[in-house]
Amino acid sequence: MMLFQAWIEPWNHKRLPPQEDYLFLHLELCASTLTDVLLPEKFASIPDRRKLFEEIVRGVKTLHREFIVHRDLKPDNIFLGSDYEVRIGDFGDACCGQDELGKYGGTPNCGTKSYLAPELDSDEKITEKVDIYSVGVMFFELLTRFGSLLERALAFEELRDKGPPDGWKGDYEGDRELYDRMTALKPADRLSLDEILVMVYFCAHDNSTNEDMKKKLTSLCADVYSATPGIDCRYGEQTALEQERSGC
Fold it and tell me: Which keywords are on file for this protein (predicted)?
């Protein structure tokens, strides 16, 4: 979020002791969150759900580039600007800085159960893959129109143990596999953020079988992303991905 100004001044609250030096932040106002637009009556108002998902992935990628693991990614913490620009907030459970093994510490058992990666239930150190799990759950939500909040609640009761309801395929061939690979039980089996962006692109633009897509995904992530980690695969632009597909 954009920070406009910050200042310190005394603050009094009728239920709390007076604070002599209280920090105030003037931040950008975001009119809604992802939770708001996922409500059954507003779901159809989302102009491009896949592009919105891509923006969430890019936002998380920015955090990880700065060695920040959020640990509580969920729709309530995805703030949206007037044109659905994504802002990630609420870093109360975040942890920063890796150890020599590339892992992060922090208070265990934090986060929100429905979006919580399984390894966060323990007191072991974690990797950035805990955020990938949460991103995968939000992917499911973005591609699923529930008829009511009760229907959503019932689906989420079994989501962690059994996955999406039988027959759920998302919008395109490969979306179910993408969900499964983001929410794999073992952190090492989960996709990276770059791999997610590639796979989202191919699910929407490629008619290959899943096996063919796996081969292309492996090749692209190994060759293209290693050379250009900042690759842009947004819709409507001539990108390195399109050049790769056309043989240019």
Answer: ATP-binding, Kinase, Nucleotide-binding, Protein synthesis inhibitor, Serine/threonine-protein kinase, Transferase
Handedness of CA 95, 98, 102, 107 (dihedral sign): negative
**Alpha-carbon span 77 to 90, nearest angstrom:** 6
User: What residue has token string 């208070």?
Assistant: 107
Per the structure, the complete domain to which residue 205 belongs is given by 3-246
Q: What is the CATH number of the domain that holds 237?
A: 1.10.510.10
Model pTM score? 0.76
Taking the C-alpha atoms of residue 199 and residue 202, their distance in angstroms, rounded to an integer, is 5
Place 97 in a pLDDT band, splitting at 50, 70 and 90.
confident
Could you give the number of structural domains in the chain? 1
Tell the burial category of 185 from Cβ atoms under 10 Å away from its Cβ (0-12, 13-18, 19+). Answer: exposed
Tell me, yes or no, if 72 is annotated catalytic: yes
